[in-house]
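[step 3/7] inverse_fold.run input=structure_tokens len=284
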């Protein structure tokens, strides 16, 4: 075990015994996470957060899962390396910046907060996120934005700088996905089954989508769409130092669901069949 010789709120941090290097000073914690179990790392983050640490820098992160899970407050976390699955899951307001790629489930069921990824994201990015923002500089894997949802004025946002694999926005019930297509020389996206089962929210895409699911349609962009796209691109460029005017000069496609109850008939048939069955049983 290793201990730090710094203090938190003026008291000794003898209780902060860790299996890795830790330094704390003036509200900043610097952690060398090399070889650390994800349980130890996440327990440390929760303890630092509860003791008023405003920012944590994590170095040598290699696959540790659940970083930032259920973390409350406005703590800032900078990650240097590749965090494991479910980064920021159930997060409640923290801000995470990753200088590298992230694995699957980034922002899983995120309640609020910010995740900025200076690299690629794996599958299921933004899975069931309810609020907050995710900015990914490069590409995402399969099923990005699956089950995203919104409630009244609470909306989640995800901006993808590159492109997506298949099933983008699958079963999406709310929120906004913006795909910029910056790392491709082609105007046509290869993503298949875009919007499969989608019944809420909106997807904006630069470039042509040739494989839309039957549950969605393309509609014209209006002035309110332009304002929203503009604000998200401005924030994206602030994080990743892209040229705002060049991105805004591109044409965007708006994808929305055809119906808010795409499977309503399926369940109505089931209810009708059940009613007929009850009738037959009562006749016996």
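[step 3/7] decode complete -> sequence:
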């Amino acid at each position: 075990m290793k201990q730090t010789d710094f203090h938190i709120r003026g008291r000794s941090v003898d209780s902060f015994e860790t299996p890795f290097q830790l330094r704390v000073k003036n509200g900043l914690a610097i952690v060398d996470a090399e070889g650390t179990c994800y349980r130890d790392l996440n327990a440390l983050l929760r303890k630092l957060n509860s003791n008023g640490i405003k920012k944590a820098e994590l170095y040598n992160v290699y696959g540790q899962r659940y970083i930032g899970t259920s973390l409350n407050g406005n703590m800032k976390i900078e990650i240097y390396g590749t965090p494991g699955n479910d980064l920021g899951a159930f997060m409640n307001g923290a801000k995470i910046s990753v200088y590298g790629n992230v694995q699957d489930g980034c922002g899983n069921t995120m309640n609020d907060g910010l995740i900025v990824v200076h690299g690629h994201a794996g599958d299921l990015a933004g899975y069931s996120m309810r609020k907050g923002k995710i900015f990914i500089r490069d590409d995402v894997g399969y099923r990005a934005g699956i089950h995203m949802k919104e409630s009244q004025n609470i909306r989640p946002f995800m901006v993808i700088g590159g492109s997506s694999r298949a099933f983008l926005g699958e079963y999406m019930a709310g929120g906004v996905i913006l795909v910029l297509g910056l790392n491709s020389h082609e105007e046509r996206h290869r993503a298949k089954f875009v919007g499969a089962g989608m019944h809420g929210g909106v997807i904006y895409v630069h470039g042509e989508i040739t494989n839309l699911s039957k549950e969605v349609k393309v509609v014209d962009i209006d002035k309110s769409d332009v304002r929203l796209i503009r604000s998200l691109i401005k924030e994206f460029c602030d994080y990743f130092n892209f040229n705002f005017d060049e991105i805004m000069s591109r044409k965007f496609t708006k994808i929305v669901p055809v119906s808010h109850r795409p499977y309503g008939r399926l369940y109505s048939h089931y209810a009708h069949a059940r009613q007929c069955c009850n009738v037959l049983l009562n006749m016996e």
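[step 4/7] annotate
Residues 264-283 form the longest helix (20 residues).
Residues 139-283 form one domain.
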